[in-house]
Amino acid sequence: MIDLRLVRENPDLVRASQRARGADESLVDQLLAADAERRAAVKAADDLRAEQKAASQAVRGASKEERPAVLERAKALAAQVKEAEEAERTADAALHALHLRIPNVVHPDVPPGGEDDAVEIRTVGEVPAYDFEVRDHLQIGEALGAIDMERGAKVSGARFYFLTGPGALLEFALAQLAITRAVSAGFTPVIAPALVKPEAMEGTGFTGEHDEEIYRVERDDLYLVGTSEVALAGMHAREVLDLSAGPKRYAGWSSCFRREAGSYGKDTRGIIRVHWFDKVEMFSFCAPEEAEAEHRRLLQWEEEFLQLLELPYRVVDIAAGDLGTSAARKFDIEAWFPSQGAYRELTSTSDCTTFQSRRLQIRHRDADGKPQPAATLNGTLCAIARTIACLLEVHQRADGSVHVPAALRPWLGGHAVLTPGMSLAAVAAPGLPA
Predict the structure, then answer these.
(1) How far apart are alpha carbons 281 and 178 in whole angstroms?
(2) What pLDDT, in 10s, does the model give residues 76-127?
(3) Which of 56, 62, 154, 299 has the fewest Cβ atoms surrounding its Cβ within 10 A?
(4) Catalytic site residues?
(5) Rounded to whole angstroms, what are the CA distances from 41 to 25, 31, 77, 347?
(6) Do residues 27 and 98 touch, judged by C-beta distance below 8 A?
(7) DSSP per-residue string spanning 231-268
(8) 306 closest CA partner among 315, 318, 319
């Protein structure tokens, strides 16, 4: 959640952020009113408690004649204190509910507009040209025996799939490369739970307006995560972190689940937009003053990974109206998909400032040793299914084979090419092929 002091001291800034997001400006005034009501309720309760304490002391010093009246006064004050404390709890709950409804304040450099207004920062790599009719990733994957959508739908329904044979081996290769790169960059690898409690989901900003996107296991009051960001943030809830040596970084592996509500008709073919996929997610806790620099570092690591995969891409600065609840700023990397003749999102990285840590009570000690909210940032290192789709399309060849980037070859038997019908034993063998 945003800092209440910021709302009190600079409400126009928060109103401008709401306008930029296309969100309700009036929530700012409602929050200010609720804050004033809560503070008034706290003062009223404190004043009555002080009166009650004085009355209790007066009882002990009262004469026999005075005692009945003093006792009656103390009894009346006790009832008033009880009512005031209930009013305080009600005011606090109303303030909290409104506080949760206001998204993070957008960074001043975020471009205005909505989904179609992202600003291109740079393009990297050349868009490939082909002297044959381009196939999409599903055609290539089916020919390789790598993707089975039909049986995925039979078992689980639309937007589910099997990765089979070389497709499954590609997933493991991408996971190994991503985790190896992350560890070499100073990240601690984490296998994160895919089911979390409501407070972790709420704390990271995924409940509320995102409810339609989330799978909920009502019987157990748990949620399936759409990203390991939720679990990685929640693992340090109500803790004070030692960030004296710099950011605390995790590379989380988990399965991710998204209902894709509202996306009917979009990317229904293949494995670009699906209900379940595996992902390696970078997550960082740092001092707030280091957050912008850390955001750029996460973006750099994402770019380096896509360069290893030899994928042409562009970096875009996401517009305010397309930011998630927690993000103050977000950069997406969109890779080239030949079958669509367009760049499509492959990774993203968000600076959530202190928004999530305030909800989850994650703090660090400042230079004076005082506990302060930490900043949290996240970045996709590799969303496996969509990355496989992009790899198959960009690196396709006329004969149905697929070029294997050099960085992936150590985990694919040293092979430079995947071909239909090739020996899986050879692909799975470590090192160079026999």
Answers:
(1) 9
(2) 878 888 888 889 999 999 999 999 899 999 999 999 999 999 999 999 999 9
(3) 154
(4) 258, 273, 345, 348, 386
(5) 25, 15, 16, 46
(6) yes
(7) HHHHTTTT-EE--TTS-EEEEEEEEEE---TT-TTSS-
(8) 315
